[in-house]
Structure formats: C-alpha cells, structure tokens
Amino acid sequence: MLYAWLLTGDTIYRDIAKTSFNFLLSQTFNENGIEVIPNKNWLLKGQEAGSFGEQPIDVAYTIITLSKFYDVFMDEDYRLKMETAFNWFLGSNRLHQIIYNPCTGGCYNRREATYVNLNQGAESTVSYLMVRVTIEKYRNE
C-alpha cells in the first residue's frame, strides 16, 4: 500500500499502509522488544501469538519495512523500532541469546521456546546481512 501511494499519490493507500503497518507493529513490539509472529501457529483474533519459532527472515523484513516507512514519513518511532528489532539478532530477545554468530558470520535459523536452533542456513544469514546493510545507513544520524 505504501508503494501504491508513492506511485499514485492517492492518500487512501497511504492511510491503509500506515494503519495496517502500525497494527502489525502493535502486535510484534512489546516490553521484550520485538517478538514476531512465530512459524508455529497463526495469530488469531482474541488470542496471543506463540512465543517461539521466531525466524530471522521475519525480523529482517520488519526492519526493511520500518526503514522504508522511516524514509518516507521521518517518524522517529520507526527508526527506534529498527534499532530494537536489529538488537534481536544481538541477544535482545526473549532468551537473551545471540542469533547472529560473529565467529562464523552466519545467523542461526530461529529462536525456539528454550533454545536457539544452531543451524546456520543461507536464508537466515542473508536476512541478517540485509538488515546489517540497512541499519548501517542510519547509524550516523
């Protein structure tokens, strides 16, 4: 919807984009930082999402989207949420364990209920690298 607004200038797309994205953010950011809707179940109306099975790709796409929204609207809350979400990779998650492995340059596949899945797949590693590049452009602001 954001891109539809940017291409057409039709404000209905802007309004839907902001409302939809802000709703998603309200479901994924809390006192623990970011907790994306996990791959173990769906988020159903009136129920809480599960608290494990979070994958780096979901955190990465959230950061990339926050980046675009920040660039367009210059809302500082989006930039702060980018930092919070990026820190998920560095241990600011429910388990307080790193997801990015600085020794190998890889990224673990997901955060489970009581442990981090230590597989370091390409999808997870590329997800981390994409957000590392994304977040770096805001580091000196």
Describe this structure in words.
- The chain is mainly α and 141 residues long.
- The chain has helices spanning 2-8, 11-28, 56-73, 76-89, 122-136, and strands at 29-30, 33-34, 100-101, 106-107, 110-111, 116-117.
- Strand 3 (100-101) and strand 4 (106-107) form a beta hairpin.
- Helix 1 packs antiparallel against helix 2 (11-28), helix 3 (56-73) packs antiparallel against helix 4 and helix 4 (76-89) packs antiparallel against helix 5 (122-136).
- The chain starts with a helix and ends in a 5-residue tail after the last helix.
Characteristic key phrases:
mainly alpha; two-stranded antiparallel ribbon; 51% helix; 141 residues; 9% strand; 5 helices; single chain
Taking all Cα atoms into account, the compactness measure Rg is 15 Å
Structural class: mainly alpha
How many β-strands, per DSSP? 6
Strand order of the largest sheet: 1-2
Strand fraction? 5-15%
Helix and strand sequence: HHEEHHEEEEH
Provide a count of the helices. 5
Q: Could you tell me how far the N terminus lies from the C terminus, measured between alpha carbons in angstroms?
A: 27 Å
Low-confidence parts lasting 5 or more residues at pLDDT below 50? none
As a percent range, the share of helical residues equals: 40-55%
Q: In the residues, how many domains can be counted?
A: 1
Oligomer: single chain
Mean of all residue-level pLDDT scores: 91
Can you tell me the overall shape?
globular
**Largest sheet at a glance?**
2 strands, antiparallel
